[in-house]
Amino acid sequence: MAVPYTFATATSAIPLSQLDTNFATAITLGSTALYLGNTNTTIAGLTLTSPTLTTPALGTPASGVLTNCTGLPAGSITGTLAVANGGTGVTTSTGSGSVVLSTSPTFVTPVLGTPTSVTLTNGTGLPLSTGVTGTLATTNGGTGLTSFTANGVVYASSTSALATGSALTFNGTSLGIGTSSPARMLDIYDATAPTFSLHNSTSGTTASDGFLLFTLGSDVTLINYENGSMAFGTNGSEQMRLNSTGLGIGTSSPNYSLTSYKAGAVANYLQVASGATGAGSGNGLLLGVDSSGNSVINAQGAINLYTYVAGALRTTIDTSGNLGLGVTPSYRFHTASPAYQDNVVAIQQGTGQTVGNQNRIQFLDQNGTTAEINAYGGSYGTGYNLGLFIGSNYLNTGALGGTFNYSQNGYASRYRQVNGQHIWDTAPSGTAGNAISFTQAATLTANGNYLVGTTTENSGSGGIKVAGQFALTTSQAFTASGTVNSTAYYVVCYSLSGTCTLTLPTPSTNAGRLLNIVVQSAQQVVSASSNVTKITDGSLTTAILPATAGKWVQLWCDGTYWNIIATNV
């Protein structure tokens, strides 16, 4: 049937029975009510604008898909309602309290408006300036404080409350303990004894445990209260260690109060210097060992080396190498004793040798030994025991009697004091290194006899024995009167023109002296004083020789007079 194409102007009901499937295009219904009767009609491409739908009575359908439905009785639902559909996803529950969802839900933040009262257990977005009044306690996540000390560090007090003050401050770069104005990155202040301590589980935690660093007045103290050591290092390695024995430099096990050690065959010195010596490595005093292990005391530079005992200077080694004992040396070895004390220099023999020992002092030049002094022990050997030998150009090269060799080319001689005797030995010229054959040239025996050219003494004592020529050559000649000098042994008077008067030496200063006087002119010889005794009766006279040529007389002085003991008158 023919119907209008557009129903937009329809103002009354239009029965759908009038419509059929012949409409191939969409139709638009305006505000006209559309009623679906019993007619089976298929509508395609129908657009409804703000329709008002009347809830249909569905009855009991066999099946259906509900996307937005209300009023459904819960008792008529079968199965388990999933969480995604507003259910719990479970069929049973145990325990008490609120139901816990198996996965975290996403809540949409509600807009509460301005409630008159509310209890928040988990809320965000609350304005602190207008929404909170009073002081928020620490139990509610606050500080419990209304203000803070400038630079004060907030800390938990002994009552678990937060506190702040000037005793513990931090200004962003420096931490102060006991001070609000720290001068260093860490500054600890106390009016009496600021203390820094370190403890661990081994040391304990009392005031007398662990390590302490503190100041008291102007003093600074480091203390390890434990029975351990204190190590000091640099460049990643330990350099020094202090323990109960002492301080070790280069070693962790000092043997004495101060021990310095370097590994390897190297020199190890302790330097002491000042502004007077200079601060360079070549200045001041060095104490230590060289690379060969020798002990060294080195006064570097143009300075002397002094040793003091009991505050007094005892030894001096000057820059020239002179050694002074008790005196500033003027010679290679110079010794001086204190006032009113003997100056004793002792050389002591060693002990322990069954054959004894000897002390030797050698004198050398650039070619070798020039002289030697030997002092022998009491058990050195016969002819040597307790003996003192002084020789030139010889060396005592052997033990128990010794072997004496020329030290240089030339003559050798020796003086010996042994067995109560004084012995003089001579030797011919020899070659350095060869053995010396000494000849005993003179001896002053223990009996007081003086032997020359022989070693055999006569009986008695105080004698002189000469094996060989004996010459007294000191003489004085007179041609007129005069005074006999102090050394004359022979007096010759000749070419006299008259009596020769001799002034003889003063007897008191010439006791034991002999004078031999001879006259070679026919003139008399007399003494200027009556101090001559006659050979016949010992009476005093001035006459010495008559006026006859060839007469002689021998005078001996007894300390008082000149006595005539022999004459050819």
Q: What is the global morphology?
A: rod-shaped
Give the DSSP E fraction (strand runs of 2 or more residues): 25-35%
Poorly predicted tracts of residues: 1-7, 21-25
**Structural class given helices, strands, pairing?**
mainly beta
Summarize the entry for a quick read.
The protein has one helix and 40 strands.
Which key terms come to mind for this protein?
569 residues; 1 helix; single chain; 8-stranded mixed beta sheet; mainly beta; 7-stranded mixed beta sheet
Can you give a write-up of this model?
The protein has 569 residues and is mainly beta. Among the domains are: 1-36, no CATH class; 156-188, no CATH class; 358-466, no CATH class; 475-567. Helix content is 1%, strand content 31%. It is built from 1 helix and 40 strands. Strands 20-21-22-25-26-27-28-29 form an 8-stranded mixed sheet, with no helix packed on it. It has a 7-stranded mixed sheet with strand order 30-32-34-39-40-36-37, with no helix packed on it. A 4-stranded mixed sheet has the order 9-10-11-12, with no helix packed on it. Strand 23 and strand 24 form a beta hairpin. It is rod-shaped.
Task: Please write out the topology.
Elements: H1 128-131, E1 155-156, E2 162-163, E3 168-170, E4 175-177, E5 186-188, E6 195-198, E7 211-216, E8 219-224, E9 230-234, E10 237-242, E11 247-249, E12 258-260, E13 268-272, E14 285-289, E15 295-299, E16 305-309, E17 312-317, E18 323-325, E19 333-335, E20 358-365, E21 368-376, E22 388-392, E23 394-396, E24 404-406, E25 410-418, E26 421-430, E27 439-444, E28 450-452, E29 464-466, E30 475-478, E31 482-483, E32 490-493, E33 500-503, E34 514-519, E35 525-527, E36 532-533, E37 540-541, E38 543-545, E39 552-557, E40 562-567
Parallel strand pairs: 4-5, 11-12, 18-19, 28-29, 30-32, 31-33, 32-34, 33-35, 36-40
Antiparallel strand pairs: 1-2, 3-4, 6-7, 7-8, 9-10, 10-11, 13-14, 14-15, 16-17, 17-18, 20-21, 21-22, 22-25, 23-24, 25-26, 26-27, 27-28, 34-39, 35-38, 36-37, 39-40
